[in-house]
Design brief:
Length: 346
Amino acid sequence: MTDLIDSLPADRDLTDDEWRFLIEGEYDRQRLFDRADRVRRQYYGTDVYIRGLIEISSFCRNDCLYCGIRRSNAKAERYRLSKEEIYACCAQGYELGFRTFVLQGGEDAYHTTEWVEEIVCGIKEKYPDCAVTLSLGERPREDYEIWYKAGADRYLLRHETASCSHYEKLHPPEQTFAHRMECLRNLKEIGYQTGAGFMVGSPFQGTGDLIADMRFLREFQPHMVGIGPFIPHHDTPFSNGSPGTLEQTLTMVALTRLTLPHALIPSTTALGTIHPEGRELGLKAGANVVMSNLSPVAVRGQYSLYDNKICIGEEAAECIECMKRRVMAAGYQVAVGRGDHVRMRQ
């Protein structure tokens, strides 16, 4: 079955046995990673797109069992960035060369439809050559439409798992798999460059769940896919869980590249947290995006989704220079520009 690697990406859906072999079988994984890298070079060359991440709030109404900023974590330190602080992060990021700003936060009721709309309008008015990505969770379709009309270009909403039964083991009853999927469909229908994604090695996850993820990605065709290892947080019900492994995660990154050749795939901070060269290895396995943190250093430690998160003490300028060196050392180049999906470039 090792010949299967050379035939990817396949026009047909793979069988369960083929997926199972690629995900958990015994073979030379470097062949898979090299194949994924060749495919990403076919569409994106050696370009790596750097995004400026602004973590705007650690308040969250949700109670995801794996997340350090879950509603029930009374020990979590909470903060919100003001509009002025967000604009200041963008100003600094623009000076440093960022042309995409990612506004990410918990599902914070303080962030009304109008509040976010004003922020998006303000950023787009001042930096018309930049893309704005939102990652603010599940909202009514009307909110997504208003923000899209205000100028938001992309929206990240990780599905976390494409198995309904698995989803229910990771979330409380009021957070439903059906609603998460409805939000993703709404985002894509509205016109966003839409991002999905999942954890690797999360509690109760089996190979069948990962096969479901790959089939969902193949059917839904998101523009972006965020894949990172599960890393436990000490103040959650899964505090004693085992983290996802480097090999597991790189395998799923590579398979995602081969399933979605045109996708924008980040080499995540979580990968860098479980291995000193995790982000570089992610790029070599098919990823082509990296995030650099523009949030104020004073609050970065409070946006604690999982334990031991890296880069919480670096100033933005220091962070971007480090990232550029890492990208170049891995054999790629930092691309200047918005870094849109290859099929949605203006």
